[in-house]
Amino acid sequence: MSLTRVHNFAVSLDGFGTGDVQSLAAPFGHAGERLHEWMFGTRWWKGAGSGGGVDDAFVRQHDPGIGAEIMGAGKYGFPGWHEDPEWKGHWGPNPPFHTPVYVMTHHTRPSIEMEGGTTFHFIDGTPAEILEAARAAAGGEDVRLGGGATTIRDFVKAGLVDYMHIVVVPIMLGRGVRLWDGLEGIDADYAIESISAPSGVTHVTFTRAKD
Amino acid sequence: MSLTRVHNFAVSLDGFGTGDVQSLAAPFGHAGERLHEWMFGTRWWKGAGSGGGVDDAFVRQHDPGIGAEIMGAGKYGFPGWHEDPEWKGHWGPNPPFHTPVYVMTHHTRPSIEMEGGTTFHFIDGTPAEILEAARAAAGGEDVRLGGGATTIRDFVKAGLVDYMHIVVVPIMLGRGVRLWDGLEGIDADYAIESISAPSGVTHVTFTRAKD
Ligand SMILES: NC(=O)c1ccc[n+]([C@@H]2O[C@H](COP(=O)([O-])OP(=O)(O)OC[C@H]3O[C@@H](n4cnc5c(N)ncnc54)[C@H](OP(=O)(O)O)[C@@H]3O)[C@@H](O)[C@H]2O)c1
Ligand SMILES: NC(=O)c1ccc[n+]([C@@H]2O[C@H](COP(=O)([O-])OP(=O)(O)OC[C@H]3O[C@@H](n4cnc5c(N)ncnc54)[C@H](OP(=O)(O)O)[C@@H]3O)[C@@H](O)[C@H]2O)c1
Protein backbone atom coordinates (compact mmCIF):
# COMPACT_ATOMS: atom_id res chain seq x y z
CA MET A 1 0.00 0.00 0.00
CA SER A 2 1.29 3.42 -0.98
CA LEU A 3 1.56 5.83 1.96
CA THR A 4 1.76 9.61 2.18
CA ARG A 5 4.78 10.60 4.27
CA VAL A 6 6.32 13.79 5.65
CA HIS A 7 10.03 13.76 6.54
CA ASN A 8 12.43 16.19 8.20
CA PHE A 9 9.94 19.03 8.40
CA ALA A 10 11.41 21.54 10.84
CA VAL A 11 9.48 23.96 13.05
CA SER A 12 10.60 26.40 15.71
CA LEU A 13 9.59 25.81 19.35
CA ASP A 14 6.72 28.19 18.74
CA GLY A 15 5.59 26.20 15.72
CA PHE A 16 6.69 28.16 12.65
CA GLY A 17 7.78 26.19 9.57
CA THR A 18 9.32 29.24 7.93
CA GLY A 19 10.04 32.83 8.91
CA ASP A 20 8.99 36.19 7.51
CA VAL A 21 9.40 37.62 4.85
CA GLN A 22 10.04 34.94 2.20
CA SER A 23 12.05 36.19 -0.78
CA LEU A 24 14.44 34.88 -3.43
CA ALA A 25 17.42 35.92 -1.31
CA ALA A 26 15.88 34.62 1.93
CA PRO A 27 13.60 31.63 1.17
CA PHE A 28 13.04 31.12 4.93
CA GLY A 29 12.73 34.81 5.78
CA HIS A 30 14.25 35.82 9.12
CA ALA A 31 14.63 32.13 10.07
CA GLY A 32 17.62 31.94 7.72
CA GLU A 33 19.19 28.50 7.98
CA ARG A 34 18.42 28.04 11.67
CA LEU A 35 15.63 25.53 11.07
CA HIS A 36 18.03 23.23 9.24
CA GLU A 37 21.32 23.42 11.10
CA TRP A 38 20.53 20.12 12.86
CA MET A 39 20.41 18.50 9.40
CA PHE A 40 23.68 20.04 8.23
CA GLY A 41 25.30 18.35 11.23
CA THR A 42 24.33 14.84 10.13
CA ARG A 43 26.68 12.34 8.51
CA TRP A 44 24.02 11.92 5.83
CA TRP A 45 24.18 15.59 4.86
CA LYS A 46 27.96 15.46 4.71
CA GLY A 47 27.79 12.41 2.47
CA ALA A 48 29.60 10.33 5.07
CA GLY A 49 27.76 7.09 4.37
CA SER A 50 25.89 5.17 7.02
CA GLY A 51 26.15 5.62 10.78
CA GLY A 52 25.31 8.49 13.09
CA GLY A 53 22.84 9.00 15.92
CA VAL A 54 19.17 9.77 16.16
CA ASP A 55 19.27 12.77 13.79
CA ASP A 56 20.90 10.59 11.14
CA ALA A 57 18.46 7.75 11.74
CA PHE A 58 15.57 10.07 10.97
CA VAL A 59 17.09 12.10 8.17
CA ARG A 60 17.93 8.94 6.22
CA GLN A 61 14.22 8.01 5.91
CA HIS A 62 13.72 10.86 3.43
CA ASP A 63 14.33 8.97 0.20
CA PRO A 64 13.83 5.19 0.50
CA GLY A 65 10.51 3.95 -0.84
CA ILE A 66 9.47 7.32 -2.26
CA GLY A 67 8.12 7.40 -5.83
CA ALA A 68 6.92 11.02 -6.06
CA GLU A 69 6.88 14.29 -4.07
CA ILE A 70 4.18 16.90 -3.65
CA MET A 71 5.27 20.40 -2.68
CA GLY A 72 3.57 23.79 -2.37
CA ALA A 73 4.35 26.75 -4.61
CA GLY A 74 5.93 28.43 -1.57
CA LYS A 75 8.60 25.73 -1.38
CA TYR A 76 9.13 25.60 -5.14
CA GLY A 77 9.53 29.31 -5.59
CA PHE A 78 9.45 32.67 -3.85
CA PRO A 79 6.76 35.35 -3.99
CA GLY A 80 6.65 36.29 -7.68
CA TRP A 81 8.40 33.18 -9.09
CA HIS A 82 5.57 32.58 -11.55
CA GLU A 83 6.43 35.82 -13.36
CA ASP A 84 9.80 34.32 -14.29
CA PRO A 85 9.33 31.83 -17.17
CA GLU A 86 12.85 30.46 -16.54
CA TRP A 87 12.39 29.63 -12.84
CA LYS A 88 13.22 25.97 -12.17
CA GLY A 89 13.29 25.84 -8.36
CA HIS A 90 15.99 26.51 -5.78
CA TRP A 91 17.98 23.35 -6.35
CA GLY A 92 20.04 23.82 -9.53
CA PRO A 93 20.07 21.51 -12.58
CA ASN A 94 20.01 18.23 -10.59
CA PRO A 95 17.47 18.63 -7.76
CA PRO A 96 17.62 16.21 -4.81
CA PHE A 97 14.25 14.56 -5.54
CA HIS A 98 15.00 12.14 -8.41
CA THR A 99 11.27 11.42 -8.92
CA PRO A 100 8.28 13.24 -10.36
CA VAL A 101 7.50 16.30 -8.22
CA TYR A 102 4.00 17.76 -8.17
CA VAL A 103 4.11 21.49 -7.49
CA MET A 104 0.72 22.71 -6.26
CA THR A 105 0.04 26.11 -7.73
CA HIS A 106 -2.66 28.29 -9.17
CA HIS A 107 -0.07 29.35 -11.79
CA THR A 108 0.35 26.13 -13.72
CA ARG A 109 2.85 25.84 -16.60
CA PRO A 110 4.26 23.00 -18.73
CA SER A 111 6.25 20.28 -16.94
CA ILE A 112 10.03 20.71 -16.66
CA GLU A 113 12.35 17.73 -16.91
CA MET A 114 15.52 18.17 -14.88
CA GLU A 115 18.67 16.05 -14.58
CA GLY A 116 18.77 13.05 -12.26
CA GLY A 117 15.17 11.91 -12.64
CA THR A 118 13.34 14.93 -11.25
CA THR A 119 10.43 16.25 -13.33
CA PHE A 120 8.41 19.18 -12.04
CA HIS A 121 4.69 19.00 -12.82
CA PHE A 122 2.50 22.00 -12.00
CA ILE A 123 -0.92 21.15 -10.71
CA ASP A 124 -4.02 22.85 -9.38
CA GLY A 125 -6.76 20.97 -7.56
CA THR A 126 -7.88 19.65 -4.19
CA PRO A 127 -5.34 17.86 -2.01
CA ALA A 128 -7.09 14.56 -2.75
CA GLU A 129 -6.89 15.10 -6.52
CA ILE A 130 -3.25 16.12 -6.37
CA LEU A 131 -2.43 13.09 -4.23
CA GLU A 132 -4.16 10.84 -6.75
CA ALA A 133 -1.98 12.22 -9.57
CA ALA A 134 1.22 11.87 -7.52
CA ARG A 135 0.30 8.36 -6.42
CA ALA A 136 -0.31 7.28 -10.02
CA ALA A 137 3.16 8.60 -10.90
CA ALA A 138 4.80 6.93 -7.89
CA GLY A 139 4.47 3.45 -9.42
CA GLY A 140 3.31 1.76 -6.23
CA GLU A 141 5.82 3.52 -4.01
CA ASP A 142 5.04 6.12 -1.35
CA VAL A 143 4.39 9.81 -1.89
CA ARG A 144 6.42 12.32 0.10
CA LEU A 145 4.75 15.54 1.12
CA GLY A 146 7.62 18.03 1.00
CA GLY A 147 6.01 21.10 2.58
CA GLY A 148 5.79 23.97 3.31
CA ALA A 149 3.66 24.32 6.38
CA THR A 150 0.54 25.37 4.48
CA THR A 151 0.68 22.27 2.32
CA ILE A 152 1.24 19.87 5.22
CA ARG A 153 -1.54 21.46 7.25
CA ASP A 154 -4.01 21.21 4.34
CA PHE A 155 -3.23 17.52 3.73
CA VAL A 156 -3.40 16.63 7.43
CA LYS A 157 -6.75 18.41 7.73
CA ALA A 158 -7.98 16.41 4.72
CA GLY A 159 -6.98 13.19 6.50
CA LEU A 160 -4.47 12.28 3.77
CA VAL A 161 -1.22 11.95 5.76
CA ASP A 162 -0.11 8.52 7.01
CA TYR A 163 3.23 9.40 8.59
CA MET A 164 4.69 12.71 9.67
CA HIS A 165 8.16 13.40 11.05
CA ILE A 166 8.46 16.88 12.53
CA VAL A 167 11.68 18.29 13.97
CA VAL A 168 11.23 20.85 16.74
CA VAL A 169 14.19 23.23 16.78
CA PRO A 170 14.83 25.22 19.99
CA ILE A 171 14.54 28.68 18.47
CA MET A 172 11.70 31.15 18.87
CA LEU A 173 10.73 32.69 15.53
CA GLY A 174 7.68 34.67 16.68
CA ARG A 175 6.37 35.07 13.11
CA GLY A 176 6.17 33.23 9.82
CA VAL A 177 3.89 30.39 8.73
CA ARG A 178 2.54 28.20 11.54
CA LEU A 179 2.34 24.45 11.09
CA TRP A 180 0.06 23.91 14.11
CA ASP A 181 -3.05 25.72 13.13
CA GLY A 182 -6.54 24.28 13.08
CA LEU A 183 -5.39 20.71 13.78
CA GLU A 184 -7.51 20.17 16.90
CA GLY A 185 -7.90 16.53 17.82
CA ILE A 186 -5.58 14.96 15.22
CA ASP A 187 -3.76 13.23 18.09
CA ALA A 188 -6.71 10.81 18.15
CA ASP A 189 -5.75 9.56 14.68
CA TYR A 190 -2.04 9.02 15.24
CA ALA A 191 0.39 7.29 17.53
CA ILE A 192 2.70 10.16 18.55
CA GLU A 193 6.26 9.70 19.79
CA SER A 194 8.84 12.30 20.79
CA ILE A 195 12.56 11.85 21.21
CA SER A 196 15.10 14.56 21.98
CA ALA A 197 18.47 14.40 20.27
CA PRO A 198 21.84 15.51 21.65
CA SER A 199 21.88 18.19 18.93
CA GLY A 200 19.07 19.94 20.80
CA VAL A 201 16.18 19.20 18.45
CA THR A 202 13.23 16.96 19.30
CA HIS A 203 11.90 14.52 16.71
CA VAL A 204 8.14 14.08 16.85
CA THR A 205 6.57 11.30 14.78
CA PHE A 206 2.92 10.85 13.91
CA THR A 207 2.06 7.34 12.70
CA ARG A 208 -1.49 6.78 11.61
CA ALA A 209 -3.31 4.21 13.68
CA LYS A 210 -4.78 1.96 11.01
CA ASP A 211 -8.14 0.40 11.65
CA MET B 1 20.06 35.86 44.68
CA SER B 2 16.31 35.38 44.38
CA LEU B 3 15.21 33.97 41.01
CA THR B 4 11.89 33.93 39.19
CA ARG B 5 11.01 30.36 38.21
CA VAL B 6 8.33 28.57 36.21
CA HIS B 7 7.72 24.87 36.92
CA ASN B 8 5.57 22.13 35.39
CA PHE B 9 3.80 24.44 32.99
CA ALA B 10 2.11 22.19 30.43
CA VAL B 11 1.31 23.05 26.83
CA SER B 12 -0.14 21.00 23.99
CA LEU B 13 2.03 20.18 20.95
CA ASP B 14 0.45 23.17 19.26
CA GLY B 15 1.35 25.43 22.17
CA PHE B 16 -1.84 25.98 24.15
CA GLY B 17 -1.57 26.29 27.96
CA THR B 18 -5.27 25.86 28.47
CA GLY B 19 -8.28 25.00 26.32
CA ASP B 20 -11.52 26.80 25.52
CA VAL B 21 -13.91 27.73 27.14
CA GLN B 22 -12.71 28.21 30.74
CA SER B 23 -15.48 27.85 33.33
CA LEU B 24 -15.93 26.86 36.96
CA ALA B 25 -16.82 23.31 35.92
CA ALA B 26 -14.04 23.11 33.32
CA PRO B 27 -11.09 25.29 34.44
CA PHE B 28 -9.06 24.04 31.43
CA GLY B 29 -11.93 24.17 28.94
CA HIS B 30 -11.95 21.36 26.37
CA ALA B 31 -8.43 20.36 27.44
CA GLY B 32 -9.91 18.75 30.54
CA GLU B 33 -7.16 17.02 32.50
CA ARG B 34 -5.16 15.98 29.46
CA LEU B 35 -2.44 18.59 30.03
CA HIS B 36 -1.73 17.15 33.46
CA GLU B 37 -2.04 13.38 33.14
CA TRP B 38 1.75 13.08 32.93
CA MET B 39 1.91 14.65 36.40
CA PHE B 40 -0.75 12.41 37.89
CA GLY B 41 1.48 9.50 36.88
CA THR B 42 4.41 10.63 39.00
CA ARG B 43 5.40 9.13 42.35
CA TRP B 44 5.45 12.70 43.65
CA TRP B 45 1.79 13.23 42.83
CA LYS B 46 0.86 9.93 44.46
CA GLY B 47 2.77 10.92 47.59
CA ALA B 48 5.14 7.98 47.15
CA GLY B 49 8.24 9.73 48.47
CA SER B 50 11.43 10.05 46.50
CA GLY B 51 12.37 8.13 43.37
CA GLY B 52 10.92 8.00 39.89
CA GLY B 53 12.18 8.93 36.43
CA VAL B 54 12.56 12.13 34.50
CA ASP B 55 8.97 13.30 35.06
CA ASP B 56 9.48 12.93 38.82
CA ALA B 57 12.86 14.64 38.71
CA PHE B 58 11.26 17.71 37.16
CA VAL B 59 8.00 17.76 39.07
CA ARG B 60 9.84 17.70 42.40
CA GLN B 61 11.49 21.06 41.66
CA HIS B 62 8.17 22.82 42.16
CA ASP B 63 8.45 23.63 45.87
CA PRO B 64 12.05 23.71 47.16
CA GLY B 65 13.49 27.20 47.55
CA ILE B 66 10.23 28.98 46.74
CA GLY B 67 9.13 31.80 49.06
CA ALA B 68 6.15 33.20 47.13
CA GLU B 69 4.04 32.54 44.03
CA ILE B 70 2.58 34.92 41.45
CA MET B 71 -0.44 33.73 39.49
CA GLY B 72 -2.89 35.31 37.06
CA ALA B 73 -6.56 35.83 37.79
CA GLY B 74 -7.30 33.14 35.18
CA LYS B 75 -5.53 30.52 37.28
CA TYR B 76 -6.98 31.75 40.57
CA GLY B 77 -10.56 31.86 39.37
CA PHE B 78 -12.84 31.34 36.41
CA PRO B 79 -14.59 33.96 34.27
CA GLY B 80 -16.80 35.80 36.78
CA TRP B 81 -15.04 34.69 39.99
CA HIS B 82 -14.69 38.28 41.17
CA GLU B 83 -18.48 38.56 41.47
CA ASP B 84 -18.38 35.89 44.19
CA PRO B 85 -17.14 37.46 47.47
CA GLU B 86 -16.61 33.96 48.92
CA TRP B 87 -14.33 32.62 46.14
CA LYS B 88 -11.06 31.36 47.60
CA GLY B 89 -9.52 29.55 44.63
CA HIS B 90 -9.82 26.01 43.28
CA TRP B 91 -7.75 24.30 45.95
CA GLY B 92 -9.92 23.96 49.08
CA PRO B 93 -9.04 25.18 52.57
CA ASN B 94 -5.35 24.11 52.45
CA PRO B 95 -3.96 25.11 49.02
CA PRO B 96 -0.72 23.49 47.83
CA PHE B 97 1.32 26.70 47.89
CA HIS B 98 2.17 27.19 51.60
CA THR B 99 3.59 30.67 50.92
CA PRO B 100 2.21 34.11 50.12
CA VAL B 101 0.51 34.01 46.68
CA TYR B 102 0.14 37.20 44.64
CA VAL B 103 -2.93 37.02 42.42
CA MET B 104 -2.65 39.54 39.59
CA THR B 105 -6.06 41.04 38.96
CA HIS B 106 -7.84 44.23 38.10
CA HIS B 107 -10.45 43.19 40.68
CA THR B 108 -8.45 43.50 43.88
CA ARG B 109 -9.92 42.56 47.27
CA PRO B 110 -8.59 42.11 50.81
CA SER B 111 -6.02 39.38 51.39
CA ILE B 112 -7.27 35.91 52.39
CA GLU B 113 -5.35 33.78 54.85
CA MET B 114 -5.78 30.06 54.22
CA GLU B 115 -4.60 27.00 56.16
CA GLY B 116 -1.08 25.67 55.71
CA GLY B 117 0.72 28.94 55.18
CA THR B 118 -0.95 30.13 51.97
CA THR B 119 -2.15 33.75 51.93
CA PHE B 120 -3.74 35.14 48.77
CA HIS B 121 -2.90 38.79 48.07
CA PHE B 122 -4.69 40.54 45.21
CA ILE B 123 -2.55 42.93 43.26
CA ASP B 124 -2.75 45.17 40.22
CA GLY B 125 0.32 46.67 38.57
CA THR B 126 3.08 46.03 36.04
CA PRO B 127 4.82 42.67 36.07
CA ALA B 128 7.93 44.36 37.51
CA GLU B 129 5.96 45.93 40.37
CA ILE B 130 4.17 42.70 41.17
CA LEU B 131 7.45 40.79 41.15
CA GLU B 132 8.93 43.34 43.54
CA ALA B 133 6.06 42.79 45.98
CA ALA B 134 6.33 39.00 45.75
CA ARG B 135 10.08 39.09 46.11
CA ALA B 136 9.83 41.19 49.26
CA ALA B 137 7.44 38.61 50.70
CA ALA B 138 9.64 35.67 49.67
CA GLY B 139 12.22 36.41 52.36
CA GLY B 140 15.23 35.89 50.14
CA GLU B 141 13.86 32.77 48.48
CA ASP B 142 12.79 32.41 44.87
CA VAL B 143 9.47 33.47 43.36
CA ARG B 144 7.48 30.93 41.40
CA LEU B 145 5.44 32.14 38.46
CA GLY B 146 2.46 29.83 38.53
CA GLY B 147 0.75 30.70 35.23
CA GLY B 148 -1.46 30.73 33.23
CA ALA B 149 -0.04 31.27 29.80
CA THR B 150 -0.89 34.98 29.66
CA THR B 151 1.00 35.63 32.88
CA ILE B 152 4.09 33.66 31.86
CA ARG B 153 4.19 35.31 28.44
CA ASP B 154 3.95 38.79 29.95
CA PHE B 155 6.79 38.15 32.41
CA VAL B 156 9.03 36.56 29.78
CA LYS B 157 8.43 39.52 27.46
CA ALA B 158 9.37 41.86 30.32
CA GLY B 159 12.64 39.95 30.75
CA LEU B 160 11.76 38.90 34.30
CA VAL B 161 11.96 35.10 34.11
CA ASP B 162 15.19 33.31 35.10
CA TYR B 163 14.14 29.70 34.69
CA MET B 164 11.25 28.12 32.85
CA HIS B 165 10.25 24.45 32.74
CA ILE B 166 7.65 23.72 30.08
CA VAL B 167 6.11 20.31 29.50
CA VAL B 168 5.02 19.61 25.94
CA VAL B 169 2.15 17.11 25.94
CA PRO B 170 1.45 15.21 22.70
CA ILE B 171 -2.12 16.39 22.23
CA MET B 172 -3.43 18.88 19.70
CA LEU B 173 -5.80 21.37 21.32
CA GLY B 174 -6.31 23.67 18.33
CA ARG B 175 -7.72 26.49 20.51
CA GLY B 176 -7.28 28.06 23.93
CA VAL B 177 -4.58 30.39 25.25
CA ARG B 178 -1.22 30.18 23.45
CA LEU B 179 1.98 30.30 25.45
CA TRP B 180 4.19 30.90 22.41
CA ASP B 181 3.04 34.25 21.16
CA GLY B 182 5.21 37.28 20.54
CA LEU B 183 8.34 35.71 22.05
CA GLU B 184 10.56 36.12 18.97
CA GLY B 185 14.24 35.82 19.75
CA ILE B 186 14.04 34.84 23.43
CA ASP B 187 16.19 31.80 22.61
CA ALA B 188 19.12 34.22 22.55
CA ASP B 189 18.67 34.89 26.29
CA TYR B 190 18.39 31.29 27.48
CA ALA B 191 20.16 27.99 27.36
CA ILE B 192 17.40 25.67 26.11
CA GLU B 193 17.36 21.92 26.70
CA SER B 194 14.76 19.34 25.68
CA ILE B 195 14.35 15.82 26.97
CA SER B 196 11.60 13.39 26.07
CA ALA B 197 10.20 11.17 28.79
CA PRO B 198 8.87 7.61 28.47
CA SER B 199 5.45 8.99 29.46
CA GLY B 200 5.34 10.73 26.07
CA VAL B 201 5.85 14.33 27.20
CA THR B 202 8.93 16.40 26.41
CA HIS B 203 10.44 18.60 29.11
CA VAL B 204 11.86 21.86 27.77
CA THR B 205 13.94 24.02 30.10
CA PHE B 206 14.98 27.63 29.62
CA THR B 207 17.83 28.71 31.86
CA ARG B 208 18.85 32.33 31.66
CA ALA B 209 22.41 32.82 30.49
CA LYS B 210 23.77 35.20 33.13
CA ASP B 211 26.27 37.77 32.03
N1 LIG C 1 10.54 23.89 7.72
C1 LIG C 1 10.85 23.05 6.74
O1 LIG C 1 11.40 21.97 6.99
C2 LIG C 1 10.49 23.43 5.34
C3 LIG C 1 10.37 22.47 4.35
C4 LIG C 1 10.00 22.88 3.07
C5 LIG C 1 9.80 24.23 2.80
N2 LIG C 1 9.92 25.13 3.80
C6 LIG C 1 9.70 26.56 3.58
O2 LIG C 1 8.31 26.80 3.69
C7 LIG C 1 7.99 27.98 2.95
C8 LIG C 1 6.80 27.67 2.07
O3 LIG C 1 5.73 27.29 2.91
P1 LIG C 1 4.33 27.99 2.79
O4 LIG C 1 3.49 27.41 3.85
O5 LIG C 1 4.52 29.47 2.77
O6 LIG C 1 3.82 27.57 1.32
P2 LIG C 1 3.68 26.16 0.60
O7 LIG C 1 2.92 25.22 1.47
O8 LIG C 1 4.98 25.69 0.06
O9 LIG C 1 2.81 26.58 -0.65
C9 LIG C 1 1.54 27.16 -0.51
C10 LIG C 1 1.12 27.66 -1.87
O10 LIG C 1 0.92 26.56 -2.75
C11 LIG C 1 -0.17 26.85 -3.65
N3 LIG C 1 -1.23 25.89 -3.34
C12 LIG C 1 -1.51 25.32 -2.14
N4 LIG C 1 -2.53 24.47 -2.23
C13 LIG C 1 -2.92 24.49 -3.51
C14 LIG C 1 -3.93 23.81 -4.24
N5 LIG C 1 -4.74 22.92 -3.60
N6 LIG C 1 -4.07 24.05 -5.57
C15 LIG C 1 -3.24 24.93 -6.18
N7 LIG C 1 -2.25 25.61 -5.54
C16 LIG C 1 -2.10 25.39 -4.24
C17 LIG C 1 -0.60 28.27 -3.35
O11 LIG C 1 0.25 29.13 -4.12
P3 LIG C 1 -0.20 29.97 -5.43
O12 LIG C 1 -1.68 30.34 -5.22
O13 LIG C 1 0.72 31.15 -5.42
O14 LIG C 1 0.02 29.11 -6.60
C18 LIG C 1 -0.19 28.41 -1.89
O15 LIG C 1 0.02 29.74 -1.50
C19 LIG C 1 9.21 28.37 2.19
O16 LIG C 1 9.86 29.39 2.95
C20 LIG C 1 10.06 27.12 2.23
O17 LIG C 1 11.42 27.42 2.12
C21 LIG C 1 10.24 24.75 5.06
N1 LIG D 1 -0.91 24.55 31.52
C1 LIG D 1 -0.62 24.66 32.82
O1 LIG D 1 0.30 23.99 33.33
C2 LIG D 1 -1.41 25.63 33.64
C3 LIG D 1 -0.91 26.13 34.84
C4 LIG D 1 -1.66 27.06 35.53
C5 LIG D 1 -2.89 27.44 35.06
N2 LIG D 1 -3.37 26.94 33.89
C6 LIG D 1 -4.66 27.32 33.32
O2 LIG D 1 -4.46 28.53 32.61
C7 LIG D 1 -5.70 29.23 32.55
C8 LIG D 1 -5.44 30.66 32.93
O3 LIG D 1 -4.52 31.21 32.04
P1 LIG D 1 -4.82 32.55 31.28
O4 LIG D 1 -3.68 32.79 30.38
O5 LIG D 1 -6.19 32.48 30.69
O6 LIG D 1 -4.91 33.63 32.46
P2 LIG D 1 -3.86 34.01 33.62
O7 LIG D 1 -2.50 34.22 33.06
O8 LIG D 1 -4.00 33.06 34.76
O9 LIG D 1 -4.49 35.38 34.11
C9 LIG D 1 -4.61 36.48 33.22
C10 LIG D 1 -5.48 37.50 33.95
O10 LIG D 1 -4.78 38.01 35.09
C11 LIG D 1 -5.09 39.40 35.24
N3 LIG D 1 -3.85 40.14 35.05
C12 LIG D 1 -2.81 39.79 34.22
N4 LIG D 1 -1.83 40.70 34.30
C13 LIG D 1 -2.23 41.63 35.17
C14 LIG D 1 -1.62 42.82 35.68
N5 LIG D 1 -0.41 43.19 35.27
N6 LIG D 1 -2.30 43.55 36.59
C15 LIG D 1 -3.55 43.16 36.98
N7 LIG D 1 -4.17 42.03 36.55
C16 LIG D 1 -3.51 41.30 35.65
C17 LIG D 1 -6.13 39.74 34.19
O11 LIG D 1 -7.41 39.39 34.76
P3 LIG D 1 -8.52 40.45 35.24
O12 LIG D 1 -8.39 41.68 34.37
O13 LIG D 1 -9.81 39.70 35.06
O14 LIG D 1 -8.25 40.73 36.66
C18 LIG D 1 -5.81 38.72 33.13
O15 LIG D 1 -6.89 38.43 32.28
C19 LIG D 1 -6.65 28.50 33.45
O16 LIG D 1 -7.44 27.65 32.60
C20 LIG D 1 -5.75 27.66 34.30
O17 LIG D 1 -6.42 26.51 34.77
C21 LIG D 1 -2.63 26.07 33.17
Automatic annotation (TrEMBL), chains A, B:
<dbReference type="GO" id="GO:0008703">
    <property type="term" value="F:5-amino-6-(5-phosphoribosylamino)uracil reductase activity"/>
</dbReference>
<dbReference type="InterPro" id="IPR002734">
    <property type="entry name" value="RibDG_C"/>
</dbReference>
<protein>
    <submittedName>
        <fullName>Dihydrofolate reductase</fullName>
    </submittedName>
</protein>
<dbReference type="InterPro" id="IPR024072">
    <property type="entry name" value="DHFR-like_dom_sf"/>
</dbReference>
<dbReference type="Pfam" id="PF01872">
    <property type="entry name" value="RibD_C"/>
</dbReference>
<dbReference type="InterPro" id="IPR050765">
    <property type="entry name" value="Riboflavin_Biosynth_HTPR"/>
</dbReference>
<dbReference type="GO" id="GO:0009231">
    <property type="term" value="P:riboflavin biosynthetic process"/>
</dbReference>
<feature type="domain" description="Bacterial bifunctional deaminase-reductase C-terminal">
    <location>
        <begin position="8"/>
        <end position="183"/>
    </location>
</feature>
